[in-house]
Amino acid sequence: MVSIVYFSSATGNTRRFVEKLGFPAQRIPLRAADPFLHVDRDYVLIVPTYGGGNTRGAVPKQVIKFLNDPTNRAHCRGVISGGNTNFGTAYCLAGDIISAKLSVPHMYKFELLGTPEDVSRVHEGLSEFWSTTSPTPA
Q1: Is 56:64 a contact under the CB 8 Å cutoff?
Q2: Of 70, 81, 82, 109, whose CA is between 20 and 30 Å from 125?
């Protein structure tokens, strides 16, 4: 079964993209005062890229905190990233960084809210990915 964990800033671009996919999803808290998210099943991470085109600060601090938890990190099976093509070479850099750090595939990149084609491709890709992936026991 498809499982998504995502982070979305206050603008909600990533949240709106995830909602269009129609799969179960859990959001990494935006504020430090919110309860910490612990995940006990495999998931694909969907994350925006921060930094405005700079290479530093591309991964949101909330995502770093979430992935610093060993159990959360161990259950990540792939990453999908959003970004802005105006960022140039830093477009979707957060996904590249997380993919390299966790040795998981960077499965897809989309701009801002994503297009209907992006939503369709990600929906189909996640369905196929989860049909061939065996979950890690909790």
Answers
A1: no
A2: 70
Residue with tokens 């993209």: 17
* Tens of pLDDT, residue by residue, the chain (138 residues): 789 999 998 889 999 999 999 999 999 999 988 999 999 999 999 999 988 767 788 999 999 999 999 999 999 999 999 999 988 888 999 999 999 999 999 999 999 889 999 999 999 999 999 888 765 554
Distance of CA 19 to the CA centre of its chain: 13
Closest CA to 48 of 17, 23, 75: 17
User: How far apart, in whole angstroms, are the C-alpha atoms of residue 48 and residue 33?
Assistant: 21
Between CA 44 and CA 133 the distance in angstroms is 11
- Any idea which residue has 């309860």 for tokens? 35
